[in-house]
Amino acid sequence: MCANVFGVLKSLFGKPFDGGKRMDHGGPQDQQQHPMEQQQQPYHPQHPAMMRLYEVQKEVSSLGPQVCTFSGLQNDREYKRMERELTQLLLQVDQVDTEGKLELQGARKRAAQEVEGLLRYLEENASHPSRLAIEELSIAARQLVDERVVAPQRAGGVAEINDELVDALQELILRLTQIKTEGRVPLRKARYRALTRLCAVQDVLEGRTPQQTLSLPLSGDTHEAVNCINQVMVKVSMARSQLLALLMGLSGRDSCAHLSRILTELQVELDALDVSGNATIRNYRKQVVEEINGLLKHLDLEGEGDDTRRYDLAQNNSIREIEAVRAHVSHLREGVLRYCLMGDLSFRPKAELQSLLTHLDQVDTAKNPCIREARRRAVVEVQAVITFLDLREALASRHPGPDEHPSHRAVWLVLGSLSDLQAQVLGFDGKRADKSYIILEEMLTKQLLALDAVDPQGDESTKAARKQAVKFAQNILNYLDMKTDEWEY
Length: 489
Prior knowledge:
Helix content: 55-70%
Distance between the termini: 21 Å
Structural class: mainly alpha
Number of strands: 2
Number of helices: 20
């Protein structure tokens, strides 16, 4: 759709202009004209109807890139502007007098189709279920941050920052990364913008949490500069709240540029302090400066997402690295399953798999949440093969004695079944609607129920074994779910 916008001149007139003198019949398709058209002379580009359509084409060429990268909703001001301008262009095209001539009618029809196509593309993306899902999660994140952080601080209270809040944000981030975009640039852009802001909020909160346990600020009696640093620290705390409000769209007055100036001025104020000869005060100032720098790095998000390379990751080098690792894992996984099918446990590429985990750990995500998720999923794929090998080895080397507790033996029987099911899950390459998927899910659930029915009878080793087996079964279910969620970059 968007690619057509930039070739709209040909699309509009069916053939290119030739030096402004005549219409050139270029390719074979252009020569296959309607019989009545072949009897007519091509219209001069100075014809009033052609000139008006040409003016429309220039306006469409200007609006096209804006439509194709718009990532907002139907109630956005920018959406309404583009919709209004495109509707006006459609009316102008409809008013072009074709004098009943077929070639002019064809040119007008193509112009109308181009404008209608842009209108349809604009509406489809702004009202797409994935776009609405992105907005729904963004609203949930906004409410969470407002209730727990921004509103309490505005009221003069203390923000409620804890692991529960950070975990809730992480859950929202994970759900955002799993939203399907169908490769549409506007949807990718909307998802990326939402993710970058949410990750920035999470980063700010995680950076602040440990500082609450420090014995700061220091007493003003310690050094004359301490009072100044204490005052700066209070302003930094206020700036943090303003930053969170900006990131989540909770501030209608402030701007990133304004807050950046405030923080920069605080840095200048700290740099001007004389703290020589006192290591404690120097460290105190250094900590506050580092916190300011941590806030400043998140203030470039107003233009974030305008660069296509940030959210269209098909050619990203980190993604290519991750995909190369996944291909390697797939090859090793096939080998492991092939050997296990023959009852041969000699193929144990655990060292190679561990090296792939190390490689993934070194992949640069550039703090891009989609690359982070891609890396996380690749890590899960590697770990799934490693745990499969570990359990197979444990089952092969198991030699229970006659006095083994019956409940403990029951747990191991379930683990044996889980190992066989995990082999099927590792080799599964279908969809959730497939009958084989449903069967696998049901069988894994049955194993969880079997573990739940095991009575440890007070045996501590059985309790521990059952707990690990339950976690193992849940991990297999989660891996099966991940393999079939059709996630995309």
